[in-house]
Amino acid sequence: MTTQNTVHDGALLQMSGIVKEFPGVRALGGVDLDVRAGEVHCLLGQNGAGKSTLIKVLSASYQPDDGTIEWEGEYVSLTTPVAAMKLGISTIYQELDLVPDLTVAENIYLGHELSKGGFTQRAAAASNTRAIMERLGHPEIAPSRTVGSLSPAGQQIVSMARALSHDTKLLILDEPSAVLDQGEVHNLFRVIRGLTDEGVAIIYISHRLEEIREIGDRITVLKDGRTVATGLDAKVTPTKELIQLMTGRSIEYVFPPRPDTPRDRGEAVLEVRDLALAGVFSGVDLTVHAGEIVGLAGLVGAGRSEIIETVYGARKATGGTVTVDGTKISRGSVVAAVKAGVGLAPEERKSQGLLLDQAVYRNITISSLSRFSRSGFLDSADERRRSDELVTSLDVRPKGVSRAVRTLSGGNQQKVVLARWLLRDCRVLLLDEPTRGVDVGARSEIYNLIRRLADSGVAVVVVSSEVEEVLGLADRVLVVREGAVVHDAPATELDESKVLDLVMEGRVA
Amino acid sequence: MTDTAGVSPSASQPEPTSDSKSVEEAAARAGQQQGGLALLRTSAGRNLGLVLALVLVCIAGFVTSGSQFANLDNALTILRLASVIGVVSIGMTFVIIGGGIDLSVGAIVALASVWCTTLATQRMAEDTHWTMMVFSALAVGLGCGLVNGLLISYGGVVPFIATLAMLAAARGYAEILAQRRTQLVSVSEFLDFFRIDVLGVPMLVLIFVVVSAIGWVVLNRTTFGRRTLAVGGNPEAARLAGINIKRHTVMLYALLGLCCGIAALMITARTTTGASTHGLLYELDAIAAVVIGGTLLSGGRGTIVGTVLGVLIFGVLNNVFVQNDLSSSAQAVAKGVIIVAAVLLQQRFARQSSSSP
Ligand SMILES: Nc1ncnc2c1ncn2[C@@H]1O[C@H](COP(=O)(O)OP(=O)(O)OP(=O)(O)O)[C@@H](O)[C@H]1O
Ligand SMILES: [Mg+2]
Question: Which of A252, A177, A249, A179 has its CA nearest to residue A215?
């Protein structure tokens, strides 16, 4: 399981001049990357820069069109994912790839089942799984649980365990922290440090610079499919320089200013009273006024997503009422909620948001079709025009609205989901992790858009695992813990440590 | 589907609708270069494979039967026969794109044809107007489709089971109604209408053409079509986008039921009889035509043009076999081979256009 790495002076991995083309897109145009044993090597770059593509080349999901890969000083050609795995390269993809109906142990040993004479060795698999979980600091995840019943963070741990069930020398993590809250991220870092101490190299991809500062050793920056800088020191390279390298411009990574006078609040638009969903949360009261941004902070699994999904009618409330502009919305009816002017940008973009095979513009307009139709007939030229405007303002790359959403990078897909609800004139906008996987530049753009929407009179609710984001963006913050709202205060009266205390309190007590 | 008076708005704003195709192509060509082109190429590539298959089948017909195959009369015969199953296939395309399946189409055709030819209906038609027969067949088709849709959407019965039940029940009821006898059509205006040729095109073929054209417009140019793609492609995303997926699903099955009603009229007119044996195995033929036409059985993707080509391929194939006095068992075997070959061919084209720049 663990690897005694023969001490290498040189690089464990050296990729040179890697080129990968998709129809119409040169995703990688000559990328160099070198990784040493025992280091955490961070890959930085804007959405669509080619990070995921590069690691898919490394894990042999894609075949490069050009370039060489050296592994422990020898040229190798990685033809199949199994070949890469045999060398000791394990990957945790941006989009989790587990089988939800199989158990934890079955998922971990999928494809390399422990067997004797054709019979699976279930007891051995279970005990090995338990050992790996122990090592990852999650002994509470039982080998016999079905993966679908785990939280996203739990599933992430299973992915990790799967990678570690191989003889791993290089572990690749593509935006692992996107589904994790701060506590989970710290746990992840603890695991990573344990691995690097054993000589395992890590390639770490994240859009959160503070994480890279904390865990990273060296940084390689990609821009438009090329390496623009490599071997940067992760601890001391100034943020300004990194952003300049990534985006080619300098961005003040700031939130839009709040309306400074404690605003003359508009009328209450969304009123939630005593809302409950059996077994998940209860007694939730929430009032959002026109022009106000309310943030929901809390741990992953505290019930924040469930709360806004229930407000939206996607889950059927077991108690309480939701009113929009004074009209009560019938429980469990998305159609009624949408009719009343409520919009939800869901958390899981792939399963809940996107029509992967459809063009970008069709994904954007699907919730506002009536606006583009006359007695049922669509004006697709107009659809494209409006989508194009949004795509431009959100900086979705590549820019065309006709390409299938499947071919966009993760962060750009997120922007498309967001664009759908920005296009619809909502009275109430519910945003679940709106900037997950979105790069630094586009983030400030999204924050500005959300603020502008609020200024135009929309009531906005934002769920985010990043405390900084909730505090920076929202006017008022609700802290959710274990299915109940434990605190409600203006954002200006809170700071990060206060929120964290509130969030964690339940665990300590 | 019959209330196509709704087409007029498209005529009243010709700019976006008639130009949107060229806009689409222009955008694909100029703006986002190969990105749009790749999309274009995949669906075109799929259909190209089908055209190729159609040409091959035609060549086979010509080689084996010469001018007996390649003459106008025979061509019209092929088309007339293919039209009936074609209308059903168009409706089936929508249901399958929407993520469903319907096994009861043949049984609905039988029931509708029997219903509109019972003595009672025919007498009523003679007393009032021959279109009474048309209305009753359409109503029966629509009604059966509605029942299917309601069971599936609101009853939570999986499509396979719900429509399997309808298959058994509708065919059984048709037998009871007809007392297993073949019912002759005596309303001459009814038969006359379906015998009209418009500029040499038989009425049955015309109906298929019109239904296909409407199907194409609905799928590609209306909110209904767009929603169908969404509901089949990712039901959860469609639901969260605010689409009433239950109601939409009911409409899809009702629409297919209506198509079955139309097909029932066509076959009743063609054979001048109503019988509970009409439409046997239509479900298989329709599903086969739709699937080789490039529609994903799992939903979310498909084209009307592909379905029409699929229908034509099977139509010509049947004809070639009949001309050569081959048994229907041999036909069945050949059909199986064709389905596999067509699907393999499509995949080849699809892969080529998505992997090479
Ligand atoms: N299967 C595909 N077909 C066509 N183009 C693709 C495909 N996969 C990726 N691309 C394109 O390749 C480029 C690089 O994408 P990649 O997913 O590597 O970006 P990324 O750096 O991981 O971005 P993010 O931070 O958003 O995850 C993008 O322009 C993307 O649209
Ligand atoms: Mg990525």
Answer: A177
Spell out which residues of chain B touch residue A339, defining contact as CB-CB under 8 Å.
Answer: 242
Q: What is the per-residue pLDDT across B61-76, written as a single tens digit (0 to 9) for each?
A: 899 888 888 889 999 9
Distance from C-alpha of A272 to C-alpha of A216, rounded to nearest angstrom: 43
The percent of residues above 90 in pLDDT, for chain B, comes to 59
CB pair distance less than 8 Å for B356 and A23: yes
Percent of chain B with pLDDT over 70: 83
Q: For residue range A268-315, what is the model confidence (pLDDT) as tens digits?
A: 899 999 999 998 898 999 999 999 999 998 877 778 889 999 999 999
Secondary structure in 3-state letters for chain B:
CCCHHHHHHHHHCHHHHHHHHHHHHHHHHHHCHHHHHHHHHHHHHHHHHHHHHHHHHHHHHHHHHHHHCCCHHHHHHHHHHHHHHHHHHHHHHHHHHCCCCCCCHHHHHHHHHHHCCCHHHHHHHHHCCCHHHHHHHHHHHHHHHHHHHHHHHCCCCCHHHHHHHHHHHHHHHHHHHHCCCCEECCCHHHHHHHHCEECCEEHHHHHHHHHHHHHHHHHHHEHHHHHHHHHHHCHHHHHHCCCCHHHHHHHHHHHHHHHHHHHHHHHHHHHCEECCCCCCCHHHHHHHHHHHCCCCCCCCCCCHHHHHHHHHHHHHHHHHHHHCCCCHHHHHHHHHHHHHHHHHHHHHHHHHHHHCC
Q: Is A156 in the pocket of ligand 1 (CB under 6 A)?
A: no
Q: What is A267-341+426-439+454-509's CATH superfamily?
A: P-loop containing nucleotide triphosphate hydrolases (3.40.50.300)
A176 close to ligand 1 (CB < 6 Angstrom): no
Question: Using the 8-state DSSP alphabet, how is residue A149 labeled?
Answer: G
Confirm if A375 and A389 have CB atoms less than 8 A apart: no
pLDDT, residue A2, reads 40
For residue A153 the two structure tokens come to: 């963070």
Instruction: Give the containing element (helix H, strand E) for A222.
Output: strand A218-223
Taking only residues 304 to 333 of chain A, the set having a beta carbon closer than 8 angstroms to any beta carbon of chain B reads 312, 314
Phi and psi (nearest 5°) for B57? -60, -40
A382 with B13: Cβ contact below 8 A: no
Mean residue pLDDT across chain A = 86
The letter for the amino acid at A95 is E
**First-to-last C-alpha distance (Å) of chain A:** 37
Distance of residue B258 Cα from the nearest chain A Cα, in angstroms: 19
Provide the whole-model pTM. Answer: 0.82
**pLDDT value for A112:** 75
What is the domain partition of chain B in residue ranges? 54-352
- Of the listed ranges A4-8, A97-101, B306-310, B314-318, the least confidently predicted one is A4-8
Contact call for residues B142 and B261 (beta carbons, < 8 A): yes
Q: Answer for the pair A382, A356: CB distance below 8 angstroms, yes or no.
A: no
Q: Is A398 helix (H, G, I), strand (E, B) or coil?
A: coil
AA letter at A240: K
Give the CATH class of B54-352.
Answer: mainly alpha
Distances, alpha carbon B344 to alpha carbons A312, B46, B145, B286, B291, in Å: 44, 10, 33, 19, 12
For residue A300, give both structure tokens. 């992953």
Domain A12-246 and domain A267-341+426-439+454-509 have a common topology: yes
Give which of A449, A440, A452 is closest to A411, Cα–Cα: A440
Structure tokens of B239? 């639901």
Sequence spans of domains, chain A: 12-246, 267-341+426-439+454-509, 351-425
Q: Measure the CA–CA gap between B321 and B90, rounded to whole angstroms.
A: 25
CATH number of A12-246: 3.40.50.300
| Tokens linked to A380 | 């697709």
Site from B234, B248, B295 to mutate, A interface, most A CB atoms within 10 angstroms: B234
Beta bridge partners of A480: A298, A485
ipTM of the complex: 0.79
